[in-house]
């Protein structure tokens, strides 16, 4: 029986049916088949400009992929890999008709993978302000990082991380305006203090206001206790003191959700706005901690 098994292996080798070579070791650069690479589901960058993608496809068709992508061995599928950085090059290579792509292989934990993906995009300035903020918030919520730890890992100040996360408290419509570059992060931070941020944001876009003009507008609206009616249905909000507004912003940054505080002579209510049941579950989990 042993001789028969040996003969079988000899025939396989002669016929070119020997076992495939072992995968390349971590830390090496090698060409990997595109269909063996899996997208990183927590990739912070969600939007790619169509015109930039098309230009990259043409460049790859003409010159190939000049800079390797970064991957790690897939945690569950042997011989496969998971993207860390370089998704745009990976997608463009598929559209360009390539079958393999140069890749640098590294061993990374889940949290190291997310940190590297965020850092690579932040360094390239390729994330929208909301994508950057969501990446930081994911590190804090899923991997229990503090704002200070995130700041140190990303090479940013703690105030930069805190201000970025505060943007997640803005209404979804304003976050969309940021994603479409209709507003800058500076505009958005100023709008956090507006009694009605959405109406104020529309006013800013319609008038083409600068960040400084937006800050002045918000101060005026806070003093007036309302917002100019730039569209039907614009509502008037009650006047809030700076301490209450600051507390709302801090709670919103901590939760990643919009928080409203109504206070009258030391009595009132706190409202937390959520947009999905998962967010409600997270609120309940935090409130029930012991």
Automatic annotation (TrEMBL):
Keywords carried by this UniProt record: Chromosome partition, DNA-binding
Biological processes per GO annotation: chromosome segregation; positive regulation of sporulation resulting in formation of a cellular spore
GO cellular component, one term: chromosome
Lineage top rank: taxon: Bacteria
Region (Disordered): 1-29
Recorded GO MF terms: DNA binding
Ranges annotated as spanning the membrane: none
Domain ParB-like N-terminal: 30-122
Homology family: Belongs to the ParB family.
Function: Involved in chromosome partition. Localize to both poles of the predivisional cell following completion of DNA replication. Binds to the DNA origin of replication.
Name assigned to this protein: Chromosome-partitioning protein ParB
